[in-house]
Amino acid sequence: MNDTAKITLKTPFWLAEFHPESAGNMTRLHHRASGTELVRTPPDAETYLKQPEVWGVPVLFPPNRTPYGKFTFRGREYAMPVNEIARNNNLHGVIMDLPWQYETRENQAILTLHHKSRPIWQHDFTMKMVYDFGETSVQQTLTVTNESPDEMPFFIGFHTALPMPKGRTLRIPRPDWRVTLTPPFHTPDGTRCPNQIPEGFFAGGQPPFAFDDLFPITSDEKGFCGVEVRCPAEKTIYRYTLGAQWKYWMCWNKAGKEDFFCAEPMSGIVDCFHHQEDPDSGFDALKPGKARTLTAEFSIQMEP
What does the CA dihedral 61, 142, 108, 242 come to, rounded to 10 degrees? Predict the structure, then answer.
């Protein structure tokens, strides 16, 4: 892929960029009136392709880690590639390198992935991601339809990467506990531990806070469910608000050594394919012809 694969969409209020040839990804969201950048944007296509999941809002199916890339569902064995060699995991599933179709309508971008059965994922399915651009908000609507004759295991996430240059702070409504992730795979062992994410606003991509944490998605006292970012340089606050379909956050900031924060909503816990009987795991299955729809929204307000 080269820079010609990048598609730019301009509306009266927003400038967005997409890389549909990899991950169905919106790699830039720029608020034109304030100059605020809401997602982390790669400097060029070469940098993006080295690690597409740390830029923009890529779709992950299935997200995060599956030990050895293997699990069993309804008597069928699934074997995804082991691409996190150091931990012997499949990391971020089977669609990261697949091209999506792209089209635009008035104030709308539509990305569609038609997956045909392959040895690493033996189901036909379609994913349709719709971005609706309003005056102060951008709505994401993702619909996944199982087009195979068999039930399909379902676990999905976004790897939403937020830029955190010096001066920006963020907060996430948080419970008191997080899911324990243990070696060698960095996957759940069925226990809980105290949540290390601090209360209130904090510098999301800066030391001393290093995050690689999994915890349930909760709302604050006002009902807000998402991530809120303060941008003093642009005099704005923006929010990434989640629909009720999301169950867990995976939060990661590369040990706090770079200026970004990945707030990754997921429909279940890490490695939920090995926790199919746990009602709290978020594991789901799509019957033939059935669909699931998940939503999220970016919104912004300018401060006086």
Answer: -110
